[in-house]
Write a structure and sequence with these properties.
155 residues; mainly alpha; elongated; transmembrane helix; membrane
Length: 155
């Protein structure tokens, strides 16, 4: 019975970030918006984004699951930061794509990056592997900040 509960908890942990990203993308209407923008150098083709984001959301879910299974008393604070950065993640694409608020979206993303750093630090204190799984997310968001600012500058 415990294995079944663990599997259920893992599935929920994976579905939460994937659902957050998917719903945000639907609201944002990303595909049509991306094609019409002037983009900075090194901008990847549009097909790269859903692939990378799906992988990152899965890694987020795995990390959150690892932290949630911990007996560490700090797990609630760590998961609170995780939820807050996920909230920021949800609204970034809406600000950027749906409303074309490029500069506010850049500052929103900068705040999200700070939250990701805090999350990684808190995860590391509890379960280092959960933190390491978020390093790619951090790097991708730093790259996204470059792209975001580039779009702001060029458009």
């Amino acid at each position: 019975m415990k294995n079944r509960q663990n599997l259920y908890d893992m599935i929920i942990s994976l579905l939460i970030p994937v659902a957050v990203g998917s719903i945000s993308a639907l609201i944002s209407r990303i595909p049509g918006r991306y094609a019409g923008m002037q983009q900075p150098p090194f901008s990847p083709p549009a097909i790269v984004f859903p692939i990378v984001w799906t992988a990152l959301y899965i890694l987020m879910g795995i990390s959150a699951y690892m932290i949630s299974r911990s007996e560490d008393a700090r797990k609630s604070r760590a998961l609170s930061v995780y939820a807050l950065q996920l909230f920021f993640n949800f609204f970034w694409s809406i600000l950027f794509f749906r409303f074309s608020w490029y500069l506010p979206a850049f500052f929103w993303l900068a705040a999200m990056i700070i939250l990701i750093l805090i999350m990684i630090f808190r995860f590391f204190q509890i379960k280092p592997l959960a933190a390491y799984l978020q390093i790619l997310y951090l790097f991708w968001c730093l790259f996204a900040a470059y792209l975001n600012f580039g779009v702001y500058w060029l458009n």
